[in-house]
Input
Amino acid sequence: MRAQQRTEREEVWRDAEADALRLDSDRRHREEVETKRRVDQGGLEDKEREDFDHALADFNEAIRLDPKDAVAYTNRGGVYYEQKDYNRAFADFNETIRFDPKYAHAYMRRGNVYFVQKDYDRALADYDEAIRLDPKYALAYQNRGNAKRAKGDSKGGDGDLAEAARLDSSVNK
Output
């Protein structure tokens, strides 16, 4: 009888220890998620203020906390793009697409890199993909319209620009 009680007691302690470990793990995970959210938000605010060094530090930290965070790579790529460091921007947008191939914004941003490099065919392919993934993505229509115009397709460009304006009245024609 005592051996059975001891075994039951040991089992209860093992279960209690496992529950405590699970709770501690859940708490640490929540803290990491909250820290990452604060870091991402801080990076976006820094980018908005054009404080690119701090924005990069924040996005680097977000990537350190979650090395497969597609949004953090896209945000960091956006900072590199603003700094005209197109190679690093391109690399980050590629990482985003690798981690989340259905993230339309990454294709649109990578298309912007191609556009500034005057590689209009690749820019168009990325804008097409962004629109395929998100048919109501006004900015992708606007950028595709500009790429079509740059290639000499005024009619196609004007059509995309009109669609962009229809989807979002704040988009410039």
